[in-house]
Amino acid sequence: MPMSNDPHIPPSRPSVRALLWSRPSTRGRWAPAARAGLAFVLPAMTLLSLGFDRNSVLAALGSFALLYGERRPYRIRWKVITTTGALLVATAAAFGAIGSWMGPDESFARESVMVGALALLTAVSVFGVNALRLGPPGPFFLVLVGGVAVIVCRAGGSPATVVVCTAAGAVAGLIVSMAPALWRPHGPETAATEAALAESERFLDDNREPSRRHSVAASTLNAWSVLHDAAQTDGDLAHRLWLTHHRVHDAEAGALMAPLPRPGILRRLRFAWRLDSHATVTTVRAAIAALLAGGISVVAGLGRPDWAIMGAVLVLQMGPDRVRGAVRGAHRVLGTLGGLVIFAVLHALDLHTAALIVVLALLNVMIELTVTTNYALAVTFITPLALLMGASPQPLSHQMTSRVLETLLGVALAIAATWWVFPRAHRSTLRSDDEAARRACTDLVSLAATEVPASVTMRVARRDLQWQLLEAELDATDSANDDPPWARRYWPAHAAVRAVGYDALSACWRAGPDGLVPEPVLNQLTSRITASRLTE
């Protein structure tokens, strides 16, 4: 997004054309993409040799777990993939059972239960991902697994078979993703630290441009969190980050004492547990759009209400602003059209299962290459993968027509939700976030009068203030895109909170771990906190 040199002016809206036709970057993605392909092809071929025949392609449902562990240190990567794999297996089991209960015959009541279950899955997963700030690939693949499991078991597939295939893919994903630890054990933490150092250097080269403070803070917090996850907070990487961190704050670097990592899971959930939080607003929008999309698909007899729901979830899952939401919707439609062409070709070829597994493995590779950079391309490869796993007896022309209509339905309702469901939520969300940051700053300044920055309570207060500032900045960007006139009026208030918050953190760094922040500095910060309440 273009940034203004004046911190009191919000950034301008991003270019729709630039977002729509953004060129996907594959830098650093080839190795993870190759692992994504292997995580599918190995269990699928094994299952095929054991007599699972066409069901062996369902291993893809579990192999998605690998996507959630990439870029994480190996010390916790196995936990992330194991947890995600367990959730995918549980989802496959639950929705496989629903599909078996529904049966092949159409029933409004039973299809409504399925829609409600998928909407509930959407709500829980969207809230969890956004409240915990887990980032891409988001909750979409959980909903995808649920939808495919329902379709497979409605057509006569066994829920037990779906669970076994999903579990096989998850286990393979764990093994394949952990393998690089044998030859590059510190790769993830090195990459995160180098990215933070580069961002800090750009900030310093740009004479500490205020508009860059957020990106520096975000990348630095991520690097420290990754180092904590890797148990590497006292090594060479940590020392380099420590020295650069002090340069950013124009402070003398003393003995290394790494900042605390990200808040714990319960603390993050508590931060988001309010009606106007980003996570809650996103959850309500996604759940309503999912319910409506699935319900209309059932009433219209389109055949795959899960597909309409997935269209809505893909657009709304991370809570985009209206501009990015519209672009993501366009990407979903364009990607579905392209994916249907691929699906039609593969359907016509009627490949042997072994050949089909190879093709789906290639699709998995392409999904990993594009899922974080270009939704249109990612959806182009997700579409045939999902349709081939949930094979339908309907004629090809009917399938393609219905999938296009369901996609348009889900996307239209998702975009409408950003305008009509809590249409001014960005205002109350940003105000609440700024107020939370203001309170955190007040608490920090009060503690700093009697406690040194290295004390346990001060370290927690500093960490929480940083977390609240980052949350406020993310929602400020959404407000600038959703409501530019209001954002221009409100921005000086937001800028005042942001500035005093980061200056309070800098004062702690300059004081050193064992020195009190000077009283005149605390008095000045207190005055600015008070003044920031008066600028709204």
How would you sum up the major sheet?
none
Head-to-tail CA distance between termini: 25 Å
Indicate the overall shape.
globular
**Number of domain modules:** 2
Kindly name the structural category: mainly alpha
With helices defined by DSSP (H or I, 4 residues minimum), what is the helix count?
A: 22
Q: H/E series, N to C?
A: HHHHHHHHHHHHHHHHHHHHHH
Q: Please tell me the overall pLDDT.
A: 91
The count of β-strands is 0
Q: Rg from C-alpha positions?
A: 24 Å
Question: What fraction, in percent, of the residue positions are helical?
Answer: over 70%
Q: What percent of residues are in strands?
A: under 5%
Low-confidence stretches: none
InterPro entries: Memb_transporter_dom
Domain Integral membrane bound transporter: 292-416
Membrane topology: Multi-pass membrane protein
Protein name: Integral membrane bound transporter domain-containing protein
List strands and helices in order, with pairings.
Layout: H1 16-20, H2 30-49, H3 59-63, H4 65-69, H5 74-102, H6 108-132, H7 140-154, H8 159-178, H9 187-205, H10 213-229, H11 236-248, H12 265-272, H13 278-300, H14 305-316, H15 322-349, H16 353-370, H17 375-389, H18 396-420, H19 425-448, H20 456-482, H21 484-511, H22 519-534
Helix pairs in contact: 2-8, 2-16, 5-6, 5-7, 5-8, 6-7, 6-13, 6-14, 7-14, 9-10, 9-11, 10-11, 10-20, 13-14, 13-18, 14-15, 14-18, 15-17, 15-18, 16-17, 19-20, 19-21, 19-22, 20-21, 21-22
Domain Integral membrane bound transporter: 292-416
Subcellular location: Membrane
Keywords: Membrane, Transmembrane, Transmembrane helix
